[in-house]
């Protein structure tokens, strides 16, 4: 196993969440497991055993895939998003060409894989959940903050804040609740003007976790269109890991993860459910109890090493363990 040479091609740099989680953290975890992994094509002496391509496609990447395949390299293509978010990285014609060349496709949720199988006829795919973000060590359990206001955070790219907008009225209608948003992207100024009651902050890689930990709860929603509902769970498990309980929409990966982590009561499907879930976690003791249930389970299921072992099964083409169509239970 340690002789297997893995070559990983990220879509973006460490400021891109999916690349940070599904390539850079994966690479570092593989190295800790004793696997010969490297990032990028430069300086490669001879063919790799596996070429892992994360969603971004262009003519040069497809040429590299064709050359690697001709040399006997196993090709794994990672698709962790769908719709417009995917098209940003992979134009349709190139995407179809890549699917035709890939030996295996990985996704961030079972629903993404099922949709690709239906829409494109792919046969060999595995759903591998995102690991906890921001190069985690063991879970962090800060002392819950008492008193009002209850700081309720959403975080993500500016284009996804639309998923939080329908829930702002519910949160702002609750006494003593302050919505907070940590936003990556260029539209922060516009969002501040459009939603003056929300406390906005600009996301930075170095500053995010300390900022997250100034908040009491996270409210995270994927209840938009069909592609939104197929998204993965990384923001949920990341918030929990760093000591911020997450209240999440009743969408497949979030609901599945909440049940797995023992916090099914934190799932909401309508405004009344959101009010109930937030109210149930107002007391510091309730938030602490949530974290004591959820954090060990989240670390056991979503640490970078767990994800690396799951990816490694796909890389090695183990017929007894692939495809993995849902996170291990």
Automatic annotation (TrEMBL):
It comes from the Bacteria. This is Glycosyltransferase. It comes from Parasulfuritortus cantonensis.
